[in-house]
């Protein structure tokens, strides 16, 4: 095994290890420390002794021993340990082949617990389940490493001190709790899809982490159709990544993309998942959004896009989720079905929405419609507003180019 | 683990009761939570106008003032201290509490644990 392969094993195993330890000892900090120590020990021992037949089991045994040692030394924990140990031994099923149970689902629900600050949930999920280091998480959210370290410490302290449990919600709690977990994963993805600031339009590493997390979750909850829907949505959107930016990182709009550069394997995988997400009951919002992405991905050219179908899906989506962002996207689809005039009327009816006031895609969509209606002065004003609100550099370059073109007429 | 449930009343009606929750709702809740055997302590507080504040300055001078009367709409009306296994269970009790409805809220705060105590 090469060092790279060893590190890949650790990245995969770390989440499982952490989850099992956190559940057993009820302390994420302790779990992280002993998981890291076990991995360090493995890095020393394996090259000499060879990789054990069951690397995951070896890591778990080593980490657990280290945790017990540490707790024995620590008076504060001693009494707690006695209780936990009895509970854990009682609860722990023995597995064939010495495999330890997969407790990552518990950890997903803990990291996305509604009692944690929304901005901390994504950070904790990336840290604990995607195996990112604190500096990597800090880069992901574009905050200084020290700030992120403080946030993660704060979140872990709340889990420990308020005793947020490591448990999977019961069947009847799931409809209330699962959307929170999906929201965490999707927010990591959307930040990767359209960076809120910085030099790049897309941050593919983040989008890929989100897909990886959704794959793990889908493996753990295969019957939950919204998990399949979210994974499908991300695959079907991510499939266009190479065509979304030009050679200098500039924005390429859907209508101008070279569709041969889309990832057709990913589209195939996403389409199969959409079908299962839409089958067997009323569709959830992620499944419907995935269906919309699939309709786009299936069109060989922009001109052949099935706009009536897309508008119909947006009608379904609006009924499930009345958010103004969805109303905005629906209006953009209406523009292609019924023309810019109808869409502009819809957009103007949304002008009072507080969530859209500082949302640059709203200003940009308005600008684009005004431009197509040849209402030049108003289009310029709307583009200028979009420019002040846009986050990433390529988006600003794109808006400036549109402005220049308009002013040159 | 012990949690303090701070019950903040929302909108009050003319008799000082919370809008949309009847005394029977409170009695039903109190019976349920008491029978569950999780209550460590609980009180409901007298009307806000009876509140008095005491402060002692560095020189030992005592100041007593009428009030304070919160300007916000939420007013602390009572509390429970419950002993339950984890936060999720505490949140479930908070959600069942009539004080969490009709614009009111229940704030759940863990009680600090000191080693050896």
From TrEMBL, chain A:
> From the UniProt record, which GO molecular function terms apply?
DNA binding; sigma factor activity
Q: Does the keyword Amino-acid biosynthesis apply?
A: no
Please list the residue ranges annotated as the RNA polymerase sigma factor 70 region 4 type domain: 111-159
Q: Which residues form the RNA polymerase sigma-70 region domain?
A: 10-75
Q: Name one GO biological process term.
A: DNA-templated transcription initiation
Q: Which InterPro entries match?
A: DUF6596 (IPR046531), RNA_pol_sigma70_r2 (IPR007627), RNA_pol_sigma70_r4_t2 (IPR013249), RNA_pol_sigma_r2 (IPR013325), RNA_pol_sigma_r3/r4-like (IPR013324), WH-like_DNA-bd_sf (IPR036388)
Return the SUPFAM superfamilies for the record: Sigma2 domain of RNA polymerase sigma factors (SSF88946), Sigma3 and sigma4 domains of RNA polymerase sigma factors (SSF88659)
Specify the DUF6596 domain's residue ranges.
Answer: 177-277
Q: Which UniProt keywords apply?
A: Sigma factor, Transcription, Transcription regulation
* Protein family per UniProt: Belongs to the sigma-70 factor family. ECF subfamily.
Name of protein: RNA polymerase sigma factor
Its lineage opens with:
Bacteria, Bacillati, Actinomycetota, Actinomycetes, Propionibacteriales
Automatic annotation (TrEMBL), chain B:
Q: Which residues form the YCII-related domain?
A: 1-114
Which source organism? Kribbella albertanoniae
Recorded coiled-coil stretches: none
Q: Report what the protein is called.
A: YCII-related domain-containing protein
| Listed Gene3D superfamilies | Dimeric alpha+beta barrel
Family as reported in the entry's similarity comment: Belongs to the YciI family.
Quote any Pfam family the record assigns.
YCII
Q: Which InterPro entries match?
A: Dimeric_a/b-barrel, YCII
